[in-house]
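2024-03-11 09:14:02 INFO worker-7 job=invfold-0412 stage=load source=structure_tokens
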């Protein structure tokens, strides 16, 4: 069962970790490339701020973004800003989101996210937690997948395995870190491939952050995953 109050606290903690780490950078570092193709660290920080405001829209009954083009344009506009402006924007937008979440409401209601995706309001804090944690890694400033909270890694692995479940281009696959196991890919009575590896590497592969070279595959090659 989703515990949105727990996830709200986790978002706050993750945001503080990110702000503390980013606060040690300088203006030149913000303009350097992130681990995301075509994006500087400034793009990543601008995206995090605009994503927070977009989730405020969701909780206040407005479209998450006016359009995909407007979303991209806002990120491009805000990416070149100096460090102090980036920090202030991430901090202030995160506070606006926490304020929106503090308004009494029905957490079991269905809300609409980007591209027509719908979900329970109670799951949105976890989605934001994902944004903050994975993009902290994407900044390439010393926070790695291995540094993610164990609870987060397990839950995001489960979420991504479920996302690829039933996908016609992914063979029936069993994922395991040696302790826990998940199923993904096309439906079948038994898995075709078993993928084994450390938790951080499984998550990195599922999330498109690692190529899976640290994983082992039995029964066939490591499956190719569609983009998220």
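2024-03-11 09:14:09 INFO worker-7 stage=emit residues=228
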């Amino acid at each position: 069962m989703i515990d949105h109050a727990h996830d709200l606290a986790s978002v706050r903690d993750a945001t503080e970790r990110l702000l503390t780490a980013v606060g040690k950078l300088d203006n030149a570092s913000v303009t350097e490339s992130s681990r995301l193709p075509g994006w500087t660290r400034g793009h990543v920080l601008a995206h995090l701020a605009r994503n927070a405001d977009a989730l405020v829209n969701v909780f206040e009954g407005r479209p998450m973004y006016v359009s995909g083009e407007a979303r991209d344009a806002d990120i491009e506009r805000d990416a070149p800003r100096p460090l102090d402006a980036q920090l202030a924007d991430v901090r202030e937008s995160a506070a606006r989101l926490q304020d929106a979440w503090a308004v009494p409401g029905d957490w079991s209601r269905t809300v609409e996210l980007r591209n027509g995706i719908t979900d329970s309001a109670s799951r949105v804090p976890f989605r934001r937690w994902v944004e903050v944690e994975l993009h902290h890694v994407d900044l390439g400033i010393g926070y790695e997948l291995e540094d993610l909270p164990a609870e987060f890694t397990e839950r995001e692995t489960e979420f991504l395995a479920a996302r690829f479940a039933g996908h016609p281009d992914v063979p029936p696959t069993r994922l395991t870190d040696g302790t826990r196991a998940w199923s993904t890919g096309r439906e079948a009575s038994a898995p075709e491939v078993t993928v084994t590896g450390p938790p951080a590497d499984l998550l990195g592969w599922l999330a498109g952050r690692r190529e899976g070279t640290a994983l082992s595959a039995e029964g066939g090659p490591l499956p190719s995953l569609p983009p998220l």
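2024-03-11 09:14:09 INFO worker-7 stage=report msg="The mean pLDDT is 97."
2024-03-11 09:14:10 INFO worker-7 job finished
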